[in-house]
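[Automated response] Your request has been received and processed.

Submitted sequence:
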Amino acid sequence: MPLPHFLLLMIAVFLAAAATLWVSIANGVPLVALALAALIAAAVVHFSRNDHQQH
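Generated structure:
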């Protein structure tokens, strides 16, 4: 992947994360709830992969 594409991808991810935090905090969602949702989503993605490995 060329460096400009990688940097644009990094900026897009950073802006999406910032927008998510801004909108959720503006609507009164506690940071603990966001952290718990992110942790649960990461666990679901991890365990839903079908790579035939033991966990």
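Summary generated for your ticket: The chain has a mean pLDDT of 92. Helices lie at 3-26, 31-48.
If you did not submit this request, please reply to this message.
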